[in-house]
Amino acid sequence: MKKSFIFAWAGFGLGLGAPLGAFLLLWGSVGFAPRFQDAFAVQWISYHFFFEYMLVGTCLAFSLFGYYLGSYADMIRAQNRLLLAETQTDPLTGLGNHRYLHEAFQNQYQNRKSDAEPISCLMMDLDFFKKVNDTYGHPFGDEVLKAFAGLIKKAIRPGDIAARYGGEEFVCILPNCAKEEAVQVGERIREAMEKNVIYFKKVPVEITVSVGAATHNGKITNYQDLIRLADRALYRAKENGRNKVVAY
Ligand code: GH3
Ligand code: MG
Ligand code: MG
């Protein structure tokens, strides 16, 4: 719920304190006599203008002040959310960054319903990317990275997590996904990149990606191990000729 409304209502409540306090003070000054209803009736007849002024004036002033404070708190909260999202986003590709990946992966890993629930990790690295930069320039390399991020987004399911691990390396976390399925997703991404021709001044450039896949098994006790195994599988994909998916 918006703080502006909560604070406005709180202000209204506080505003009511003024006429109520005034009534209690006046009632107390005569030793709380006569009984409540009569004292109230007497005071209302004698000072109704004073009470009406306070009811309207203080309630309005406090509500407005509460609304202002609440709106300010809402704005700060929205800004904080935006800043948090910014610190976890890779500005080039719009995917999550390294920091986001670790947080999201740890959460996903720990929140599995049981240790038997599979979770997979894909580690992807563009092939000969240094050569791409050297041949066509860094800005073109950046375009390739953006295009690859777009292909990843298209290939994964809504609950999956994709992040730029660093440089030209990307990671996908696939919750509730067994080994065969993870390899299929990796293959889908690899194939999409292979088919995706990017043009440099009307010259088609083909860039491929190597993928390492790892799936949680009984021996793995934390998410970092899963990343490590996916990285080892990726190393094997590179060794075996690149443009390949290798499962650990
Ligand atoms: P391999 O097939 O073994 O992965 O070879 P590679 O050339 O892709 O690997 P290497 O690690 O030698 O080079 C990675 C290159 O990625 C080097 C670096 O300039 C480039 N790179 C890293 N981050 C960025 C970036 O943000 N933009 C661009 N354009 N290039 C980047
Ligand atoms: Mg690399
Ligand atoms: Mg590379």
Summarize the structure in words.
It is a single chain. Strand 4 (198-200) and strand 5 (203-205) form a beta hairpin. The protein is α+β, with helices and mostly antiparallel strands. The chain is built from seven helices and seven strands. The protein has helices at residues 3-29, 36-87, 98-110, 129-136, 138-155, 179-195, 223-239; strands at residues 119-126, 161-166, 169-175, 198-200, 203-205, 209-215, 245-247. The model has no long low-confidence stretch (mean pLDDT 95). The protein is elongated, with a radius of gyration of 32 Å. Helices cover 61% and strands 15% of the residues. The strands form two sheets. Strands 2-3-1-6-7 form a five-stranded mixed β-sheet, with helices on both faces. Strands 4-5 form a two-stranded antiparallel ribbon. 29% of the residues are buried. The chain folds into two domains: 3-88; 98-247, Reverse transcriptase/Diguanylate cyclase domain (Alpha-Beta Plaits). The structure holds 3'-deoxy-guanosine-5'-triphosphate (GH3) and magnesium ion (MG) (2 copies). One magnesium ion binds next to strand 1.
